[in-house]
Structures are given as C-alpha cells and as structure tokens.
Amino acid sequence: xxxxxxxxxxxxxxNAIAQNTTSAILENAPTAFPLPTESLTEPQVTSxxxxxxxxxxxxxxxxxxxxxxxxxxxxxxxxxxxxQKVEMLQITAYTLSEKFDRELSKVSQYTAAIEIYEQxxxxxxxxxxxxxxxxxxxxxxxxxxxxxxxxEMERLVTQLKSTLxxxxxxxxxxxxxxxxxxxxxxxxESLDKNNILAIRREIVALQNRLKECETSRxxxxxxxxxxxxxxxxxxxxxxxxxxVVQLNWRGFPFKYGAWGRDFFPQTPQNDLYWVxxxxxxxxxLEYYRLYNSYDDLLLFKNAREKRxxxxxxxxxxxxNNSMYYNxxxxxxxxxxxxxxxxxxVRKTLPDAAMGNRFSYAGVGWQDIDxxxxxxxxxxxxxxxxxxxxIVISKLNETTLDVLHTWKTKQYKPSVxxxxxxxxxxxATRPVNTRKExxxxxxxxxxxxxxxxxxxxxxxxxxxxxxNYNPSDHTLYVYNDGYQVKYNxxxxxxxx
Length: 495
Ligand SMILES: *[C@@H]1O[C@H](CO)[C@@H](O)[C@H](O)[C@H]1NC(C)=O
Ligand SMILES: *[C@@H]1O[C@H](CO)[C@@H](O)[C@H](O)[C@H]1NC(C)=O
Ligand SMILES: *[C@@H]1O[C@H](CO)[C@@H](O)[C@H](O)[C@H]1NC(C)=O
Ligand SMILES: *[C@@H]1O[C@H](CO)[C@@H](O)[C@H](O)[C@H]1NC(C)=O
Ligand SMILES: *[C@@H]1O[C@H](CO)[C@@H](O)[C@H](O)[C@H]1NC(C)=O
Ligand SMILES: *[C@@H]1O[C@H](CO)[C@@H](O)[C@H](O)[C@H]1NC(C)=O
Ligand SMILES: *[C@@H]1O[C@H](CO)[C@@H](O)[C@H](O)[C@H]1NC(C)=O
Ligand SMILES: *[C@@H]1O[C@H](CO)[C@@H](O)[C@H](O)[C@H]1NC(C)=O
Prior knowledge:
This protein is α+β, with helices and mostly antiparallel strands. It folds into 2 domains: 5-214, no CATH class; 236-490, Neuraminidase (6 Propeller). The protein has 8 helices and 23 strands. It has helices spanning 5-16, 20-27, 83-106, 111-133, 140-163, 169-193, 196-219, 294-299, and strands spanning 32-34, 61-64, 70-75, 236-239, 243-247, 257-261, 273-277, 284-291, 304-319, 322-327, 332-337, 342-348, 369-373, 376-382, 389-395, 402-411, 417-421, 424-430, 435-443, 448-457, 463-469, 474-479, 482-490. β13 (369-373) and β14 (376-382) form a beta hairpin. α5 (140-163) runs antiparallel to α6. It is elongated, with a radius of gyration of 38 Å. Mean pLDDT is 77; it is low at 1-59.
C-alpha cells in the first residue's frame, strides 16, 4: 500500500494502451485480409477506453457481391503497435514496484517522502478513476498531464537520492528506470496517435456493415440464379419436391429404366428428351424413344422409337446426341449415334466389375453407370481392386478412352444411385419407402469426400436411375416406372 505509486502509474499506462489486445492480433495478421462473415467476434470494447487523436489510415470496404456473399477487407497500416515493448514495460514496472515495496518497508527515513507520495497516489488514483468513469476522449492534454506527473515523481526520487547522500544503489536504479518509463510513454504516445484506436473504430464500423449486409441478405433469401451450365456455385443445398411427368410409355410392369434430357454444350437450342425403360427382366435395354420437345414427351407425340441389341442396366446417359450405355453381358461401353441408331464406338472399360457384381442397392445390373455434367461424360463403376468401392472415370466422349480415374471410399452396393455435377459425385441412399437422401459427395477437383444430408421425397420405393442435365439444373429420375423430375437449388460459393 505504501508505495503503489509505480503500480498506479502502471495502471494508467495500462489504460492508456488499452486498445492493445486487438492490435496484438492485428499485428500478426497479413497487411490485407478478408474477413468472412462469421470471423468477427463481438467487439471487446468495454466502458472507458481512452481515445487519442488518430490519423485516418485504413481503407475499408464492405459489400455484398453478386453471389450474395458479404465481403469485407481491412488494410492495416505499416506501422504496428509495439506490443512487445508494452509487455516489457509492464514487466519492468511490476518488478520495479515490488522492489520499491521491499525497500520502503526497510527504510524508515523515507516516511516523510512517502506521505507526499501517498497524497500524490491518491490524486492520481482519483484522476484515473475519473478517466475510467467518463468515456470522454483523451487528448494531447492528458498525455501532457501524465508526463508532468512522471516528472514530479522523478523529482521526488531525486530528492530522496540526495537525502541518502547517493549511497543507495537501488534508488539510483529506480531513477534510471523512471527515466526509461518517460521515454517509453513518449514513444507510445506518438505511436498510438495513428494506430490502435483507429483500427478498433474501423473494426467496429466493419462489424456494423457486416450486420447490415447479413440483414439485407436475409431479406432477399431467394435462391440465387446460376446460368445454364455454370459451375459458379457451391454445390447442392436443397432439392424441390418431385414432379411426376408420366408413367413410362411401355407401362407399369417396366419398373427399370432411365430417362433424361440431352445436354448439348455447343447448341443449347436443341432439345431432345429420351426414355429408355428396360425389359421386364430388369436387365436388357432394347427399346428407347426420343422426343424433340417436352410437349411431345408429355403427349407421347412424334416419338422416334428405336431398337438396339442389347444394352444392360439402367446406367444409360445421353450427351450431345449420342447415347452411352453398358453393352449386354460385357464390360464394354457403347456410344450410339441417335440420328442413325448405329453403334459408333465400342470400348472396354478397364477392370470394371460386371454381371451384377457391384450394382446399386435395390437396383440390379447397373455395374456401369454413365453420367453427364457440365464438362462432359463420366462413368461410375467398381473394380475388384477397389473392393466394390465406387470408382469414377472421366471419359473422352469421342473415343470412350478413360482420361482420368478417381477411387472413392464409398461401397457402391450400399448406395442407391449416383450422379455428377461440376465434377462432384453425389450418392443417394434410401431413408424409408418415401424418402431418399443425398448423403455422400466426392469432389474430383479436390479429391475430397464429404457428407451431406439433402432429403428427396419420392413417390415410390426404388430409384432406378438419376440423370442430371446441366442446362436446366434438373435431375431426371426413373422411379419404379415413373418419370420424375427434381429441380436442384445450389448455394452461392462460400469463401
Ligand atoms: C488491453 O490489455 C489489457 C490487459 O491485457 C486488457 O485488460 C484490456 O482489455 C486490453 N484492451 C482492449 C481494448 O482489449
Ligand atoms: C483506398 O485506397 C485506394 C488505393 O490506395 C485509393 O485510391 C482510395 O482513394 C482509397 N479509399 C479510401 C476511402 O481511402
Ligand atoms: C492533491 O490534490 C489536492 C486537491 O486537488 C491538492 O491540494 C494537492 O496539492 C494535491 N497533492 C499533490 C501532492 O499533488
Ligand atoms: C533504460 O533503457 C536503456 C535503453 O533503452 C536500457 O539499455 C537500460 O537497460 C534501461 N534501464 C533500465 C534500468 O531498465
Ligand atoms: C439471418 O438468418 C439466419 C438464419 O436464417 C440467422 O441465424 C441470422 O441471425 C440472421 N441474421 C440477421 C442479421 O438477421
Ligand atoms: C428445401 O426445399 C423444400 C421444398 O421446396 C422446402 O420446403 C424447404 O424449406 C427447403 N429447405 C431449406 C433449408 O431451404
Ligand atoms: C457435339 O456433337 C457435334 C456433332 O457431332 C460435334 O461437332 C461437337 O464437337 C460435339 N460437342 C462436344 C462438346 O462434344
Ligand atoms: C478425345 O479424343 C479425340 C480423338 O482422339 C481428340 O481429338 C480429343 O482431343 C480428345 N479429347 C480429350 C478431352 O482428350
């Protein structure tokens, strides 16, 4: 209690540099960094923080970009707050006050001086308390006063020194240290002018802008529009209710099959719907129909019906006016020109499991499943080497050569179906007889797998095939003989 004067000085310094925490964090941050929506914590500003005159230094922007993502950037100035110096100062001052304490308890001659000290301390304490209670800005004047106080203490120590006839080393040392404190306070003052306080204010402003941005985003919470064939989104976030188009043209017993809408990358004005129910054995692909418009499809009008011998399973896909399918009782892939109904390419899919070895859950004979996304043709299958886990290959749609292969950790017979969007495989599984879940993803761009949960309502129990069309972002699903459509909702890209 007797010699808390340095401690009080310290308390003051402590307050004077109260904006330290934030600056310490910022100091180690890159000079420019984006602040994602969630990353800003609550402001740590408590009641009374001194404020110094601050030069404008920062260049801060906060905006909502065209994807609906709130973005903010902070540009920090080159000058950084001397956090290490402050810490040093704190340690020094604490040590100092401890020493002081020890000495003063020993030396009785100091009593007179100490009384003055105590009064001074009380005065200083009152002043500090006042500063804390009022949230007025601190100015140059406050610093001047602080410096005066320190000078005064310096004078008192000088006095003490003379009364002790220069024989006390500790007092000598205290003198030097108080001089040092003066220098540090001067330093801090100049630095603080254009540093921490301004940063804190900018960050608070930024938080407010982010909140505004969030609010406005919440208000316009309609699904973001992505142009046909675009991959500028962050993947599936939701799916519509199923829209039942019709029962397949061959009738209710034809529970297996596939259907879809051709994706023409270069001539999107073309329209072609295809329906390929398997024979009732659930294995042979023999007949398919083509329609040049959605109306024709709905009305069973102007259908072009063709026969092939034979395809196998419901893994069929159509891309750029060619049909791709697994040729019966083989691991061969076939490319069929839909204008002429002729097989133009036949190629073995190396190592592919075949003959109902690793088909999907609840769906037979779909060892080889073709898929179309924005970038073209893919094939989803398994190998003995992959122990039945899903293998994905990107194909050259001209030659059916395998361009690249990815191995996943997902067992193929435990998923009910799969499709690919923007290079990301999505796999489904049944939840019950009326609900299906998109639960697994494998991103071939990053080779990362992931878990999601998007529930698809379904009309009937089994999903035999899913074909994705990049131009309308729709899934074409063959559900126990019914042709069903689902619209996909994508999320904006995050980070
Ligand atoms: C500055 O540091 C002190 C002690 O570490 C802390 O109590 C105070 O809250 C910090 N100031 C700010 C504005 O965070
Ligand atoms: C932000 O920085 C840019 C480039 O340094 C400058 O042109 C612009 O005027 C600054 N804006 C503000 C508000 O300081
Ligand atoms: C403390 O404050 C009182 C009243 O403001 C003043 O009269 C006194 O001189 C001050 N003492 C010191 C040591 O500054
Ligand atoms: C005072 O500061 C100088 C230079 O900053 C340093 O070398 C010296 O050790 C300091 N003295 C004490 C007692 O802290
Ligand atoms: C925006 O909506 C989300 C959930 O829909 C909610 O958690 C958040 O608090 C909302 N934000 C604002 C600023 O209203
Ligand atoms: C997902 O879509 C369904 C059907 O349109 C809708 O009822 C539901 O609210 C959506 N869920 C979310 C999280 O947007
Ligand atoms: C689509 O087919 C046409 C005609 O065969 C061809 O010229 C074009 O290159 C194909 N486009 C793609 C992306 O394969
Ligand atoms: C696909 O094969 C054709 C013919 O060999 C070739 O011209 C084309 O560049 C290949 N495409 C890709 C993406 O490898």
